[in-house]
């Protein structure tokens, strides 16, 4: 897993190797010592670029959110229908979690703040997807926040339960996911959460 010949050690290289370690070995591999071994260097060399395990996890989560947003753009950029955008975001998130379960866990369970200058533009981009999808509903600001939270709770809850193997009844998970999306969209249309 050494870096390519002639390529110096940079934060970007450290993050890419950390992601490769995560994919190969699971979440326990997300650490400066493990990444240093993969790079064939001593841990202090990484500290010149990334300040410890918490900073490494933050940098990896930021990179994963950026990757996820690229996927979202590919699936939604040519869509104008509100329901189609919501479904595309939902399926993009579920497919990302299915294809990269460990990366998804790190991405969604690493707490990032809107005051973080590296995360703020990512959060704004995520909001832009939802603003585009929810614009036809004419929500006021508080309602828009409620709607976004409702969608996120539904998606994250379903995906986490699916990853944990908690859905044991004999019914297609794909059909259940589709029914959940139908219900979310119906709730949005009826403004069920409006005070």
Automatic annotation (TrEMBL):
<feature type="domain" description="HTH-type transcriptional regulator MT1864/Rv1816-like C-terminal">
    <location>
        <begin position="86"/>
        <end position="184"/>
    </location>
</feature>
<dbReference type="InterPro" id="IPR025996">
    <property type="entry name" value="MT1864/Rv1816-like_C"/>
</dbReference>
<protein>
    <submittedName>
        <fullName>TetR family transcriptional regulator</fullName>
    </submittedName>
</protein>
<dbReference type="Pfam" id="PF13305">
    <property type="entry name" value="TetR_C_33"/>
</dbReference>
<keyword id="KW-0804">Transcription</keyword>
<keyword id="KW-0805">Transcription regulation</keyword>
<dbReference type="InterPro" id="IPR036271">
    <property type="entry name" value="Tet_transcr_reg_TetR-rel_C_sf"/>
</dbReference>
<dbReference type="InterPro" id="IPR009057">
    <property type="entry name" value="Homeodomain-like_sf"/>
</dbReference>
């Amino acid at each position: 897993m050494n870096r390519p010949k002639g390529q110096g050690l940079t934060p970007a290289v450290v993050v890419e190797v950390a992601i490769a370690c995560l994919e190969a070995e699971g979440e326990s591999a997300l650490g400066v010592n493990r990444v240093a071994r993969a790079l064939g260097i001593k841990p202090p060399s990484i500290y010149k670029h990334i300040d410890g395990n918490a900073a490494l996890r933050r940098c990896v989560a930021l990179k994963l959110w950026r990757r996820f947003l690229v996927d979202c753009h590919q699936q939604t950029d040519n869509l104008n229908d509100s329901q189609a955008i919501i479904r595309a975001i939902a399926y993009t998130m579920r497919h990302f979690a299915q294809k990269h379960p460990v990366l998804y866990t790190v991405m969604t369970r690493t707490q990032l703040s809107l005051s973080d200058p590296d995360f703020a533009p990512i959060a704004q981009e995520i909001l832009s997807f939802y603003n585009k999808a929810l614009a036809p509903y004419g929500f006021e600001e508080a309602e828009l926040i409620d709607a976004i939270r409702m969608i996120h709770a539904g998606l994250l809850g379903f995906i986490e339960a699916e990853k944990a193997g908690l859905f044991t009844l004999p019914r297609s998970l794909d059909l259940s996911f589709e029914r959940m999306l139908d219900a979310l969209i119906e709730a949005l249309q009826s403004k069920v959460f409006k005070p």
